[in-house]
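Table S2 (continued). Query chain:
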Amino acid sequence: MTRRFTALAALAVVCAGLELVAGRGMSPGVVWDVVNGGGDATERHIFFQLRLPRLLVSLGAGACLAVAGLVLQSALRNPLAGPEVTGVTPGAVLGAVTATALGLAGWDSPLAVVLAACTGGCAGAALLWLLAGRGRGDPAQTAVHGVLVSAVLGGLTAMVLLVEPGELGSVVQWLVGTTEGRVWQHWHLLWPWALLWGAAAWLMAGPLTLLRCGDDIALTAGLSARRARTLALLCAVALTAGAVAAVGALGFVGLLVPHLAVAVFGADLRVSLPGAALVGAVVVCGADAAAQLSSRLLAQGLDSGRLTLPVGALTACLGAALLLVVVRRTPSRTF
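Corresponding output:
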């Protein structure tokens, strides 16, 4: 396990380095000069005020989404559970957009956006919990209800944007998921939030393990399944809300990264939860580096200086392709 964590940490460093040099405006040589204390004032501003906080936010958001996905899959005993398909992410998006349209929050005040996103995420999760009813333990039924809830919440978000079309231009990339324009304010809000709820998720490793074994076994062990599941869902919603408020709705990160973490680190949640955080950070950081490099190459090829590929579009496409491959190769796989 130590070697695996070390290898992933080294991969995270490599992805971080690639993200720092992949963006436009500064060549890799200039970035190296700035890191070594050189460069002019503009180059130092771009590196320290734009690229570095963007890197840290992508790492933190990836870790939050991955841990939230693993908590949801463990609490619901559903391999298809994830923030994207359980109403948590769409609810968080709806809450943030609605609060902004009503003037209660703004994209220049991340704290208000986080609170609105957390409220919306809780509402989305509660709606799924009510609709699932007695079939909460059935993975297939929960997945179907989750897709329906997510579709309804997405439609409500579209309606809010139609009522307030002035907000559309400023949040369209955020709805897809992007790290563009993230500054130190986003990072200073994200890291304590992620640390608090990440630690809470790790402390729940024991109850989550019992929940994965079934409610009957949890009750035999003296655990209140409903109370533990409620706390786990609250933790997952909070982690998702923090990530959504920072980078938007990144698709498939919270759904697929937990499976990678369990495959690498095993089923012991005391190990796989921090492992999922590290894998999620690597995935989002690497995807952001690839998105920046693709934007740079496309802008050169199409002679367009303002072309930007959101990282959420890349994670959605790659995640959907990977999910199709996994389903086709292991159609009978269970959690």
